[in-house]
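Mods, move this if it's the wrong board.
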Amino acid sequence: MSNISPKAEIDPKAKIGNNVTIYPFAYIEGDVVIGDGCVIYPYVSIMNGTRLGRDNKVYQNTVLAAEPQDFSYCGDESELVIGDGNIIRENVVINRATFKGDKTVIGNRNFIMEGVHISHDTVIGNGCVFGYGTKIAGNCDIHDCVIFSSGVIANPGARVGVAAMVQSGCRFSRDVPPYIVASGHPISYGGINSKILTNHGVEERVMEHIANAYRLVFHGQTSVFDAVMQIKEQVPDGKEIRNIVDFISNTKLGIISKM
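Not the wrong board. Structure tokens:
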């Protein structure tokens, strides 16, 4: 049984699951799916194309599936797909995709703080934290367990690898590789993210391998391509090392620089 305020404005075509709480003055359009156990606070706007999973909390003045802020957008029926267990705090705006059949995707168990804007066609993994006022432009790709401190700006198409951290006030147009801390103006490599790696049970021996891999990338006297070849030759193989090699090998924008 859901607890839906009669003061909420909900299109009768919207599909709302069980045990959903919707507070007064929420606005929900017709082409919307809200999964079981969600909580929708007052003054939230959930627009056409939203597919909301289970047990999400969406706080005041947030707008889900806002139309893309993209000059290529021509009114296509695209989607915003959000997984389970996310916390989306006040004044967040998340745009749906630009073209029909495409999606903006938010995974599971993410914490999206006040004032964050996530633009069209961006894909976000699981277990991420986005600090106050973070702005993520269109077509970005943010992998699992990423942390953005407050005021971070990710420019269009940038990728961020698993378990990376971007510190407050940074802006970047190139890719941020996995397992590192990125900081400064201009943004640059600031070492491996040892605290998060420890919290995720990564052994100290493996962290040493990760650090050695990044010494070759950021402090070697070769190109990034040659550094990747050196990692394959010199650093013991493992899941994390393969992630680093694959991420850097697939960059289109290049990666951030060394300090």
